[in-house]
Amino acid sequence: QVQLQESGGGSVQSGGSLKLSCAASEYTYSPYCMAWFRQAPGKEREWVAHIYYGGKSTRYADSVKGRFTISQDNAKMTMYLQMSSLKPEDSAVYYCALKFGSICYSDPERFPHWGQGTQVTVSH
């Protein structure tokens, strides 16, 4: 069972930047998709972005497009989320997720492997 570990969360002021990391516990030669989701208090888990292994394709939610960049170091099985121009509405617990296979989804139900989450707080 692959395990995921996020890091890099914290508190920043509006307009600031943070970079999240997600490291997988084992390397795989199989195709996979990794994604970032977030969940604010009282809200459903929201898809943020995903990346197909090797960085072959990326997609972003409209709410973060142009401000967030997802990337990956396939050799290290590590995914990143560079977040810039942060807004208070970006505050949430950010989770990384992984699924094996050749298709990426924005539906959290499609991802069987999850990290424990890292808190991001953006103040006015």
Molecular structure report:
It is a single chain. Strands 2, 4, 5, 6, 9, 10 and 11 form a 7-stranded mixed beta sheet that branches. A 4-stranded antiparallel beta sheet has the order 1-3-8-7, with no helix packed on it. The chain contains no helices and 11 strands. The protein has 124 residues and is mainly β. It is 0% helix and 50% strand.
Using the CA coordinates, give the radius of gyration. Answer: 13 Å
> What is the overall shape?
globular
Structural class: mainly beta
Strand content: over 45%
Strand and helix order: EEEEEEEEEEE
First and last CA, distance? 40 Å
Q: Count the beta strands.
A: 11
| Average predicted local confidence, pLDDT | 95
Low-pLDDT runs? none
Number of helices: 0
Biggest beta sheet summary: 7 strands, mixed
Helix and strand arrangement:
Blueprint lengths: L3 E4 L2 E4 L4 E7 L7 E8 L6 E7 L5 E3 L7 E6 L4 E6 L8 E9 L12 E2 L3 E6 L1
Parallel strand pairs: 2-11
Antiparallel strand pairs: 1-3, 3-8, 4-5, 4-9, 5-6, 7-8, 9-10, 9-11
